Q: What sequence folds into this?
């Protein structure tokens, strides 16, 4: 079964600085998807960024980017120019086509003013 | 555009009472639907998923059940709640383009 590991339960960063959240996963599949979700205090789950495993180019969404290392099964999230509104739980997730998704335990990120 | 609704938003129930949480999706047809539970400060635990009307798969055996009476309606139920059923319940549907899941606003359940 696929597993997703987030080894950093909590992290903090100063406003305007850059922070990287780590995620590793385990799978024997070659085609799959990876995601980062954000859960702010409202607890609404918001999709931040996605990566298709067949794409070598790292996905980027404004201040959010990923470092996808397929051979190492690593999928880290970099947040640049951190803002107070980035304070949230961040979940890494793994999914196969038309199949259910597996989530990591989450990393609680606090952006300090 | 697609939207997903959950109600109620908050619920406080005594131990032993029944439960019914509802999830509905608009703007899509025949979606895969999911129920998750999230304990305080924890990750998401998949409870049930459904690929169509009347089709339910259970991930974790417990005193909860799920039903899908209509294409875009997914219901989470219990006949008798336990204290351990307290948590935040999220419903999600599976997008067609990139396999991502889209979540509803959630229901906060407290069992006393």
A:
């Amino acid at each position: 079964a696929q597993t997703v590991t987030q080894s950093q339960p909590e992290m903090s960063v100063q406003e305007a600085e850059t922070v990287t959240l780590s995620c590793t996963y385990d799978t024997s599949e070659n085609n799959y998807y990876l995601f980062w979700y954000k859960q702010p205090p409202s607890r609404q789950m918001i999709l931040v960024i996605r990566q298709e495993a067949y794409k070598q180019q790292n996905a980027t969404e404004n201040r959010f980017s990923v470092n996808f290392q397929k051979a190492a099964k690593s999928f880290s999230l970099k947040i640049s120019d951190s803002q107070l509104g980035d304070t949230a739980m961040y979940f890494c997730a793994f999914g196969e086509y038309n199949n259910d998704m597996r989530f990591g335990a989450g990393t609680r990120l606090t952006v300090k003013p | 555009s697609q939207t997903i609704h959950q109600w109620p938003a908050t619920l406080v129930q005594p131990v032993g009472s029944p439960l019914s949480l509802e999830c509905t999706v608009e703007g899509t047809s025949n979606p895969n639907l999911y129920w998750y539970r999230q304990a305080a400060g924890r990750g998401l635990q998949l409870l049930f998923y459904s690929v169509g009307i009347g089709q339910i798969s259970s991930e974790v055996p417990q005193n909860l059940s799920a039903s899908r009476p209509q294409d875009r309606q997914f219901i989470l139920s219990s006949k008798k709640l336990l204290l351990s059923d307290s948590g935040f319940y999220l419903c999600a549907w599976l997008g067609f383009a990139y396999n991502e899941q889209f979540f509803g606003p959630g229901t906060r359940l407290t069992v006393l």
Notes: Chain B touches chain A at residues 32, 34, 38, 41-44, 46, 49, 59, 88, 90, 92, 94, 98-103, 105-106, 108 (CB under 8 Å).
